[in-house]
Amino acid sequence: MTRTMYAAMLCFAVCLNGRLTAGEADQPFDPRQLPLFTEGKTYLGKYETGLYPGGVNVMPEAHRQAGLRMARLIRPLDREGRPDDANGRIVAVVKGHSNTTLYFNALAALLKERQAQVNDKFVLVVGSVAGQQLPEILRLEGPVWEKSARHIERAGCTARQVQVLFLHTTFNGPGNPSGKGPPPPPFPQSMQKMQRDVATVLAHCVKIYPNLRIAYLTTDALRHYTGMEPHVWREAFAIKWLIESQIRGEEGTAFEESPSRARVLPWLCWGPYIWDNTWTRDRFRDGVHPNPETCAAVAMQFWKHLQNDPIARPWLLRQTPPATAPAKTAAPIVLIPENPAPSPASPPTAPVAPQAAPAPAPGSTAASAPSGDNWPMSGANPRRTSWVPTAVRGALRPVWYRPVEAYIPQETQVIGARGKVYVSSARGLYALDARTGELVWRFDTELPIGNAPTIDGQVCYAGGMDRRLYALDADTGRLLWSFDGAMAGYRTNPLVVDGKVIAGNRDGNVYAVGAHGTPNQGRLVWSFKTDGPVLNSAAYADGAVFFASNDCHGYAVDVSSGRLLWKSERLPSHGFHSWWPVVYRDWVIFCGMPNYADGPMSPHYLRLEQNDLFPAENDRGHELGPRGSVPGAWPKGSVTMDVSKAALHFGEKPWRRFFFVLGRKDGRELVLDIDGKKGYAPITLHWKHTHCPPPMVHPSGVVYEKCMYLGRANKEGSFTFMPRSITFGWEVNPATGSRHVQIAGRSKAADEPGALSGAGNVIYEVVCCDREGEWYAIDAGPIERGGRGAMGLLWSYGNGLEKQCPGYDAMWLYLENRGMSGLWGFYRGPDGVYHNHGHQNPLIPFNGMLFTIKSNCVIAFGSSGEPARKLDIIRPGKPVVAPPPARPVEYLKQRLAEEVQKILDAGHLQPGYFCAGQFIARFDHMSPYFQVPAETFYVLARALPHLPANQQQALREYLKKEFAERSPLEVALYGWDGAPRTWAEYPPEAVAMMQRVKDSPMAGGRWMWPFPPHNVYGAYKYAQAGLCDAKELLRTARAKLEVPPRMPEPMLLEHVWQLNMYIAGYEGFLGLQRLAGQKEDPEILKSLEYLRRLWVEKVDFRSPWCDASGKRVREFHKHRINIARCFIWMTPELGQYLRQHARDKVERGLKVLNDAAPYWFNAAFEGTMGEGNLQPLYDLWLLQGKALVLGEGRAELDKYLDVPVFARGDLYYLLNLITTIEGDGR
What we know:
Layout: E1 42-43, E2 47-48, H1 61-73, E3 90-96, H2 98-113, E4 122-126, H3 134-137, H4 143-154, E5 162-168, H5 189-208, E6 214-218, H6 231-247, E7 267-270, H7 292-308, H8 313-316, E8 333-335, E9 354-355, E10 387-388, E11 397-403, E12 415-417, E13 420-425, E14 428-433, E15 439-444, E16 454-456, E17 459-463, E18 469-473, E19 479-483, E20 495-497, E21 500-504, E22 509-514, E23 524-529, E24 539-541, E25 544-548, E26 554-558, E27 564-567, E28 582-584, E29 587-591, H9 605-613, E30 622-623, E31 627-628, E32 640-642, H10 644-652, E33 659-663, E34 672-674, E35 677-679, E36 696-698, E37 702-711, E38 724-730, E39 740-749, E40 754-759, E41 762-767, E42 772-777, E43 791-795, H11 801-804, E44 812-814, H12 819-822, E45 825-827, E46 844-846, E47 849-854, E48 857-862, E49 869-870, H13 889-906, H14 920-923, H15 933-943, H16 949-965, H17 988-994, H18 1014-1024, H19 1031-1040, H20 1049-1054, H21 1056-1075, H22 1082-1098, H23 1132-1141, H24 1143-1156, H25 1182-1189, H26 1194-1198, H27 1211-1221
């Protein structure tokens, strides 16, 4: 038998070879030692070499025939393990350590390249884990077993479809030659133990994979360069002896059932014997882990063996030639984990299946960092400095402008490269000619593109909310390939460096995928897992990749391996949305958002800061510090300001800071010494209710950011002075204590978000709501005080874009002649919820012009004297690619179990703390999420049947305890006792307010009833789950209901969610009566029928807070609930009723709402109306309408199932997860 393939898992205890005699103690390793496959030799004069009995490498014929019998039994199986040649799968599982992963990554890549030859039913699942050698695997639980199970599930398969096993392992562990623990026993006892251990592992595999037939075994490569020889060389004897024991038919090795013997092991044979004493040190990265070339060579050994092995050919190879070209044949599913770090602490990753490229690659395949005057990615370059060398300045005016119908998120930047500008939207990507605005190509999608694309050479990379990372031809838009391995959507801009495309994902991973034209093209190279969604695009410098997660930590990982370099302390931010870290000298800057929710949960951050930083005297306000002209990296003679006060303020109240300057090498935050006192970066806010935008970093070494510099403290309970902001230029300068800043640009209101970019010695600035756009020279000084230098206004309050570009805002509605300077407006009219007061996209200098996106219109500024040319609106087209396959229901159930376990571990939870800006202006009572007990009992009761049995019991006990202590029939609203749901720590001011709020027996406030009627529905679901006797609840429940509802009909139709809550309460009471065997209450039944008919006949999906023309509105802040208004608290019973009586009406309404808010399923979407940035979470209820009324199945619902917003206890995510699990059985 020739050298061959992988490694497998074997069983149970078997008879052993030999007995230790005198003179057989360990001998020094001879580097000239011959490989074990050398025939006709002996070791220590007793132990024969050769792979099979008799000192030969040829498998005995009887054992070969047995293997052929096993191979004939291998066929595609369905998920229950039944034969299914049409749709079944043949799953092969790999187990081992880090080298195993490296070899099988390379093999998987090779199988992809040769997919036309590979059986399209074959699935390779790599379950190996770094640091998990045989002693760890022998525990029969832990990382290798968990990863194998998880990846089988993610591949859409089950353990019953596993028929082949590859075990490539080593005995390296405690008591091994690595020096840890006592030395191993001498030969042959050490290998006899390994033989027993491998057999035990294999026997366990037979138990958990009932259809396992064949196992391929092999040992590790040469370890001479780490001092582990001759131990590794000897490990081959353990495998040889185990296979020989099965060939001899010894007890405990049976692979076939018989009347007298039970099956214990799979059929065993050698994979490729790869130990080779000719390997030199350069074959390894570190003496242990082989380099890519070595891995590729070993993978070819594997492939040649399998290709020529009559036992492997029937199930691995395609038995008939494909009828079409290889690009169109069904590809085998090859799951590739990350390239592992050598440490056992390597972060776990998800398995992935790259989609094959349907066409040849375009010319350029370089994955180098963008440079020059292009703007090929968000932030301009891998360091994300938002600066390019060549400035565009002078008397600039609009040259062309082109509206886009599909929504473009406000932070999305125009990308400039290859003579084109690239724009992403909720319905795809568009490439426009930079000079003319003509459409060059389009790539239409069903679901939104998550962020701006990145152009690298001739390739355009973009991540979508459909869980795909796309590679397109940058000149034609042709799809080259997509990486489909993520478990959620992308909201980050890809980083292309070191031959990899690196993008954070909402599933909490950062994925590094081989760039186009590289050996790993389209395949996962590594991934890194965090505890929260990664919405922060990655930056890069000197081999390190930097990003933040919504778990409130900053990270640095190695670009080659994904190995963790450092993880910051928990940062006091309400997550990290939209933006990116910025590399600055030896530092990396992370921009967050103060964790202040305002309203009933915390004070108003802007007022707190204003009162702490400025005195109350002087109606004209006070500047933050004295002015001067302190030398620095800024232009000579610049006006400077001493901002020690701000630095010390953040030193005294560090929970207020949001601008984090961390060391590139160790992640430690920069701490300033201000006259012996502790301080932090003196960057103050210039926005309200949103995340701080990233700074522009000039190559001179100055960081430019808009900051509040002028203000006056307010009298108690009032807000009488709006502070002002200006551009600060700050540098880390030990000589001055980093306490001084340059001031430049024009003064503006401090609560108006903006964005900066730069080119040459020019700063570009835009202000929210399309109010202003301008440029000014870095040395211009504070312009409102007669500063020198140059500046230019592109548009302004008096000369707005609506005058210069008539009709540019075709997709926007501004109310009452752009009242309040554009503050009041909506994408797609008054039924929408998106506006442009939060995050902003900057002016992009490219190709001698400036580009930006305002009110869903791409606008180009240049020096042309001609009037601006308006181009036709770009409307959505037919999607280019089919929707992604639904995630396996087993994976969804696993996610449900994980999230429920977090609740069980935490105990009683506080309400959900979330910062949604001015949503509190009309909905302060709905701003703390999950405050009404009904949601806890409803959602967790629905979860019960989908959980493992032991967890079901634990959840039952949890619910009983909750009901006993906080019955939904006694507690109207939860107080703030219990464990927090958030990743971020609360600021002390919020904690003080929360401590005063206890469980309340009454609702009050803006609620229209004294007690939540849907709490009765929660009690019904509790009783329906068998947790109590329904009779015990009826009397109390009836007393809590208003029958009929006190709310007048117009109010119910305006606040449809409260109509739904009344309906839920009545449904719950009647349900309790049915459980108790009682007759339904006729008064409640009558009220329920009235409310249901009212829903069917009079509920309107259009916003009730506008006139018939749609141009005059009232209750402006209520519009933020436009999308969710009719679906909040839609129960299965109401959904079923509406499916029978109003399905068409609901379907039409959902179509309108999906167009108006295409990111509705994106939890905590970074776009909303009014002063704020994060859209409230209630939009997620739309999925209930799609499921309960339209009856959509799991495949459709899964497209819109997002991720949790909270660290634990996200009941809206759980509700949608459960609804999706139930999708095909509803």
